[in-house]
Every structure is written in C-alpha cells, then in structure tokens.
Design brief:
The complex is a heterodimer. By secondary structure, chain A is mostly beta strands. Chain A is built from no helices and eleven strands. In chain A, β5 and β6 (55-58) form a beta hairpin. Classes of the chains: A mainly beta, B mainly beta.
C-alpha cells in the first residue's frame, strides 16, 4: 500500500533563517506531488505541484521554492523565512488518473 | 477565478441527528468532487469521492452531486461526537496539469 511521510512534525524558526521540509511517498511510482499551506483559520492554499522529476509548477510567487530531486521525493525550501510563512504545511500525492489526494501528517511551522 | 464555496459554520447538531454540509463550485465543467474531514491540528482525510450526478452512500455518509446546479453536499446520518471536525469540499478542474481546489471548510460540532 502507498504511504506518505512528511517531517518534521513541528518546527520553530527565527525570521530570516532557512527552511527545508521533506516529503516522500512509498508504494507507488511517478506520483503527482503537492505542497499546500493552511494558515490559522484559513483554507488550504496550493503552493507547488509536480507531475514529474524536475517539473514544478508554482501557484503563489513568494520566498518559497520546491524541488523534486527523485521520483517520490518533494522538498519545500526557503532561504529566508518571514513571519507570514507561519502555518501548517501539508504534502500530498495523487495518481496520474486523477482522484483524491492523500495528505501527509503535516508540519506546523512557527516563525518567531 | 475558479472557486469552491462552503458555509464556514459552525454547524451544530445533536448526537443522532443528520448533519447536512453544502458546497457550490464555479467551474461548470468540473468532473470530480471530494469531501475531506480534518480534525483540529491534523491533516485532511479523504472520506468521499463522487463523479456522477446523484447520490453515493458509504456507511453513515452520503455524497450528493447536482452538476446542473453546481452543488455538492455531504450528509452524515446518526451523527456522533467523533464526527466533530472541519469538512472540506474539493473540486478537480478538468484541465490537465491543474490541482484540486479546496473550499475553506465547514466546522461541524456534534453535541452529546
């Protein structure tokens, strides 16, 4: 069966520090991968999605970037965090034929 | 801009009652529709998917789709306190290479 791993679960970072969140999927090949952010009391905001290695689409221009160095690995990064980057970051995957997404357990990021 | 609208709630129902959650979407040609449940502090969990007009039942949950009215609903029969959560509606645009669009969610509270 397919599983998705996301870490760390919580993170407290100072303003201006770098960020790296990692997500991996097991049990499937060539998944579609997604990064969402959920700010407190708000909906899910799509940040990036990828349909293949090296293929990244950005939905929101900001100080975040994403990379997909391997088929089942998706990384969210920032060189310098802002206070507004605080939120609940969720990685998700889906198959190539559509269907719903399966989310990882999420990373709660607090920028102080 | 494609949108998915939900009443934010909270929707309060007594234990054993039927909870009715509603969602409207703006893109008339959308084909796939999903309901997610999100407990406080946790990641969303897919509970129902529906692709054709009509009803789809799974245990105590029934999803209803009316494409002509651009309307999706989720009924929860015999509501339990454990059903208390935020329910997210998601719509899959038909265009290739696009991601699910999520509503902001409806918070359901079931009182015992």
């Amino acid at each position: 069966s397919q599983t998705i791993h996301q870490w760390p679960a919580t993170l407290v970072q100072p303003v201006g520090s770098p960020l790296s969140l990692e997500c991996t999927v097991e049990g499937t090949s060539n998944p579609n991968l997604y990064w969402y952010r959920q700010a407190a009391g708000r909906g899910l905001q799509l940040l990036f999605y990828s349909i293949g290695i090296g293929q990244i689409s950005s939905e929101v221009p900001q100080n975040l970037s994403a990379s997909r160095p391997q088929d089942r690995q998706f990384i969210l990064s920032s060189k310098k965090l802002l206070l507004s980057d605080s939120g609940f970051y969720l990685c998700a995957w889906s198959g190539n034929r559509g269907g719903g997404y399966t989310f990882g357990s999420g990373t709660r990021l607090t920028v102080v | 801009q494609k949108e998915v609208e939900q009443n934010s709630g909270p929707l309060s129902v007594p234990e054993g009652a039927i909870a009715s959650l509603n969602c409207t979407y703006s893109d008339r040609v959308s084909q796939s529709f999903f309901w997610y449940r999100q407990y406080s502090g946790k990641s969303p969990e897919l509970i129902m998917s529906i692709y054709s007009n009509g009803d789809k039942e799974d245990g105590r949950f029934t999803a209803q789709l009316n494409k002509a009215s651009q309307y999706v609903s989720l009924l929860i029969r015999d509501s339990q306190p454990s059903d208390s959560a935020t329910y997210l509606c998601a719509v899959n645009p038909p265009q290739a290479g696009t991601a699910l669009i999520f509503g902001k969610g409806t918070t359901l509270s079931v009182s015992s």
